[in-house]
Automatic annotation (TrEMBL):
InterPro entries named among the record's database cross-references: Carboh/pur_kinase_PfkB_CS, PfkB_Carbo_kinase, PfkB_dom, Ribokinase-like
UniProt superkingdom: Bacteria
GO MF, one example: kinase activity
Record-annotated Carbohydrate kinase PfkB domain positions: 4-296
Organism, scientific name: Pseudotabrizicola sediminis
Entry keyword annotation includes Metal-binding: no
Name of the protein in its database record: Sugar kinase
Membership in a protein family: Belongs to the carbohydrate kinase PfkB family.
Transferase recorded as keyword: yes
Keywords noted in UniProt: Kinase, Transferase
Amino acid sequence: MSKSLLSLGECMVEMSPTATGDYARGFAGDTFNTAWYARRLLPADWSVAYGSCIGTDTVSDEMSAFMAGEGIDTTALRRLPDRTVGLYMISLRDGERSFSYWRGQSAAKLLADDPAWLDATLQRRDIIHFSAITLAILSRDHRIAFCAALGRARVTGSVIAFDTNLRPRLWEDTEAMRAGVMLGASVADIVLPSFDEETGLWGDATAADTIARYSTAGAKRVVVKDGGGPVTLWSAGHGTRQHTATKVEQIVDTTAAGDSFAGGFLAHLAIGRTEDQAAQAAMALAAQVIQARGALVPSIFA
């Protein structure tokens, strides 16, 4: 029987710098990147779907066709005739990236405006993944409705994974961002925070502070990433342990480092690996990703 991983959020047109200084067009976005890497790692008896809203224009058609060509199930895409997809441009300095966004007419902002469609989309999913960016692009009321739908899916057996990926400019203010992150964490079985972001938002001094917050919120597993530092993994019943980061000689582009980690972690858990094995495999994958340009790196799987 086929199993299903659904990733929810916003996929955008990506303009990424090439080695020659030009820009290449692609399609990417944090939760889509996670789905893309999970698809590469999961066996054929797993379906990987992407849930979002897109337009009916040419670029939306091209995005949907790209996803399908990459093996992603597109039946969870909802078409909105008066909207389109967002665009972002990556700028790089010493391997670190910054982003410029154009998403005023992004259809994905209406991801939670049709409760019946959302509930139907979430049905019979083994794993559902979303991020704080998914929540940030929604209105306050839609965030509540979206997480309520995830809570219903969780009750019926879906494992919910939440990446606390922070983009402060997407939120109304710091308090809204804190409330949104905790709302997302409250319906998640797995929380995937980055320690530098947690320190900036909450003032965490150690990974233990981060783990305490999300385990108290109800998570069964918390995986704290720390850039080139160790990954700290906590799970109910097994406590806390650390894994040393995979050594990287030269960082080229950190785009999708956390997204690929999430895809690797979830995929390896799905195929029966232990939490520690999944974390180690996810770290190794992310280390490969940051040594290449762009969010999606097909050469890793060649």
